[in-house]
Each structure stands twice: as C-alpha cells, then as structure tokens.
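Following the same procedure, sequence and fold were stored together, as reproduced here:

>
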Amino acid sequence: MRVIITAAAGLVLAACQGTEAPETTSIGPADQVESGLTIFTGGTIYTGIGSETVDAVTIDATGRIIAVSPPTSKDWDESEVNLVDLDGAVMFPGFADGHAHLLGIGQREITLSLEGTASIAELVTRIEAELQDVAPGQVLGGRGWIETGWPEDRMPSAADLDAVSLDNPVILTRADGHALVANSAALAAAGIGDDTPDVEGGKIERDAEGKATGILIDNAMGQALALIATPSEQDIIRPYVVGAAAYYSRGWTGDHYMRVTHAHASMLERLDKEGRMPLRLHNAYDQEGFALATNRDHETETITNRSVKLYMDGALGSRGALLIEPYSDRPGTSGLSLMEPELLFAAMERADQSNVQLAIHAIGDLANRRILDTFEQGAYGVDNRWRIEHTQILHPDDIGRVNALGLIASMQPSHAIGDLKFAPARLGPNRLYGAYAWSSLLETDAIIVGGSDAPVEVGTPQIEFYAAVARKDLKGFSTEQWNPEQALSREQALTLCTSAPAYAAFMEDDLGTIEVGKLADFTVFDRDIMTIPEAEILEARTVMTVVHGEIVFDAE
C-alpha cells in the first residue's frame, strides 16, 4: 500500500482499538508542519498509557509526534515520507535512567573494572596482573568490587593488596562508590595512619588492635582519591562520549545525571552542540552549583540543569547508611551523617527561594526521616519537585509521608536484587518491610522514578524493568522475607522508567508517553517485555533508540 502525505493534509488518527472507526484530527496549517515526515510502523507500539498500543507513530522534522496511527491515503510518496519498518519489534516511550552517573559509566568502559570479581584471591590476582604494565610508584585505580558472596566473607584489606603491590599505591573503590580499599603504599602517600582521626562524615576502618585496615568510608576516601592524577580535559571528554554511546546503545534515551560540576556541565554543553552527546540529560549540580542551577546555565535543547545534589548519608553495603537503630550485623554503628538537619534546612531554604530542584541522597531510615522532618518544618510546596535519591529504607511510619509531603521517591529496582543477599543481615527481619518498598509507596500515590545508579549497577533498561516486576536476582533467586508483594505490575514498571522520570525532570508535557504533541523519544526491543515470561525480560535485545526524532542507535 502506498500513502501520499502532504504538509497541508490532515492526518487520520486511529482509535486505540483497531475495530473502532477512526476520527480525523487536523495537525494545523501547512506552515506549521515542516517537510520530512517519519513513520514508525510494522511492530507493536506501546504508548505508555496503561497497556494501550497503536499501529504507527508519525513525527515531523522538529522531532515531535503528529499522529499515533498511520495515514489512510492510497499512495505513498517516498520523497516526503521516511518509513521506518520496526520489523516486528516492540516500541515504547523512551526509557530514561532516573539516577545514573554518566562519567562513571564511561570510565567503567575504558578503565579497570572489578565487576564480577568473585573473591579476595581473584581480586589480588587481577591487581597483580594489572601492575605488570604499571611503572613503579604509579598509582593504580579501579572500581566495582563488592564482597557479597565472597568465600572470605569480608571486605579486602591493605594487607591483601600489599602481597602484590608494595611499590605502587593501589586504590580500589567499592561498587557503591561509598567505600574503597587502599594498600599500605596508598595509605602512606595519603598521610593516613593508625592514629589518623576520622573526618566528619567519614570512617577509617580499624581492626581489633586499632590498626587501619585499608578500608575508607565516605568522606574518609578523599585523601586517598586525591592521589589519582587530575585528568586532562580530553581524559574527561572520552568517558563522557563512551558512556553516552554505551547508554543509548542499551536503549536509554535519557539520564538523570547525579552529580555534575560546573566545568563538566560546560563540557557537556559543548559536546551536545558538536553532536557528540545524543542523549537527553537532566543534570544535578554538586553543592557548589546553586547559582548555576538557579540561572539554568549550560542548557541545550536536550540538556537541563536545574537541580542540585545533596548527601544525607552513605551506603548500606559499606554500613554508611544512617539508621534509626544500630546495624543488626554490627551493633556498634548506626551509619554516617553527611549533612546535619540544620544544614539541610539552610539548603532547602535556598533552593526554595531560587526555584532549584533538590535531589537528596538518603538510604537509611534515619536519613530519610530527617529529610521528611526538615521538609515538613519548612512547609515547602510541591512545585519544586524535590527528590529523595534512593529512598531505600523507610520506617513504616514514614512511607505515607513521602507523597503526603509532595516529595518524589527516586529509587533503583536493581539495588533491591543486588542487595537481597546482604541487606537482611544489615537490617534484621524487623526493618525489611520498609526496605525497597515500591508497592507500598505506590499505594500512597507516591511518584517513584526508576533508575539504575550505574556504574554502581550494570545500567540496562531490561535489568531495571525485570527487577521491578520480579524482585528476584538475575538467576531468579529470592526469599519470602524479601517481601515479594512489593514487586510491581508491568504497567507500573513501565511508568517508573518512562513517564515518572519525565515528570521528575519537569518534562511531562514533552516526554514519557507516545502522544500527539510530545517529543519522539523511543526505545525499541526485539520482544514484548510486557507479556513475555519475566525471566525472558533479561534476554530482550535493544534494536533501536530514538532521541528527539533522531535514530541514535540501530542494531541493524
């Protein structure tokens, strides 16, 4: 069948159900529609509105959707229409990662990654091999280890690394980014000894004899990380470009990037204008960026900069998450406070007066409660759409307060399946009800933004969607104590990855669903993740990614 489309012609929109008679909707005068229309058809197309599907989507040269069904004329003018045949694939509104670290994603692709390391012995062996090509005295850095499931049942230590690295400082960051292990050479170079006092918001782990073990947590990491050479601008640009390419090739159309510096925001603006950043970014500045966020500096058509990232506590895995009661597996600690309530209140006051969105990291139940209490104290409204990043462990009394106060829960489904083997030990059975409580939050009408926290986690749409609907690890393992009732329906999981991130980025009028008038951000998989068995979701392959009407990735 051939269809003639002209700029002056009205387009015929099909009803949601194919059996119903279509109604004609005009797209306006000819001068409102630029030449060069693109039609996506030939597969299943989910609009993101419940389980609704349509037969085709037509976009204009500005990258906006002008119809959600194919035109019904009899002929086809190939000079005016670009037909994209989905060839049986399944298209969705663009999946946006609601919390990720773009620079770290790129760095993981091009530097030493310790993901998948299965033991301390393997970690040491890998470091020994890496050091073969490193000059004496040069610092070796890496990231991605996590001790969960290791046969040694502990974190690595300086002594472990010293066996193969006496001449080189070695600094290896845990997967969560909130702890690292340094060898003795690195500790000495950083000026950290047995008698070095803990800094505020940080901890130097010590053994029973008071000797530093090499594990540094949160703010204690700074001195060691300072040993790693300051990268050149090109050393920064490369992982940004590589990270963006990795992300859109996985099907992500956007990234809520936590946390960007002024210098990097300027760099990202330039990369976008050069056509080297085909990924939609909603950036959160570091705490020094309040003025920049207020002024919306370095924004482009696909980059927004209106947020500031704050930190209340550390991470659960490294026992830096701030808890109301002590850790069940280490009663001597309740975690770390990285921002006291009075400083948080001052930041909220400033953000409220400046129309700046706050994105506040909080994992432990006390860290989350302090945000809720401080927000309530200030009686702030919902217009700024402030977010709690992770909202990972909530006291049951606080679950209903998130939505009641108008805060957004920015959560990462993959954390629940990554943490299920150690979180019960950290928290004990009585605190698990409020851990990763997706369904309970949605029952209060809270808005949950789904993300990955990559490079902490792998960072694929398939894993995040699977984790939300299965609440099992990647091998299908879970337990009854992990509250399977907190798993989500597929429609809810789709919302987490599409319309909720759009709302949290103040772009619900432009993104999140496939509707007339919205921007054409699409994610296309080779199979229908809304209907296939849950285990097969992980096998879905990304075949196409579309950002602002441009095909930025095509597997063919």
